[in-house]
Write a structure and sequence with these properties.
globular; alpha+beta; 8 strands; isomerase; two-stranded antiparallel ribbon; 3 helices; Putative isomerase yddE, PhzC-PhzF family; Phenazine_PhzF-like; 109 residues; Diaminopimelate Epimerase, Chain A, domain 1
Length: 109
């Protein structure tokens, strides 16, 4: 991320980090305890699950999550049909730096 002044405004640049589809390591599957419909990896693991409810209910095994070779883990799903305000939901976990759950998920997006 970079920030610069532009005509009195702060301009932020959030470069994309494309992920590659991958098979999840055993530690990741054990730590999350959910079935993934997609797993991608860059510096993070991106784990897509089937429902918003799964994202909201997940309770990772944090000691096991510390064994996952990544800076963090993003869990995401398409938002439920009853919610028209947003398209998807996400949670972000970075236990290696002491963040057990980032509700804003800014650095993940």
């Amino acid at each position: 991320m970079t920030a610069k002044m532009n005509e009195g405004w702060i301009e932020l640049n959030f470069p994309a980090l494309p992920e590659e589809k991958t098979e999840p390591p055993a530690e990741l599957q054990e730590a999350l305890g959910v079935k993934a419909s997609y797993v991608g990896k860059n510096i993070f693991y991106l784990v897509e699950v089937e429902s918003e409810e799964t994202v909201r209910a997940i309770k990772p095994d944090f000691p096991k999550l510390l064994e996952v070779p990544a800076r963090g883990v993003i869990i995401t799903a398409k938002a439920g049909a009853e919610v028209g305000e947003y398209d998807f939901v996400s949670r972000f976990f970075t236990p290696e730096i002491g963040i057990w759950g980032d509700s804003a998920t800014g650095s993940a997006h």
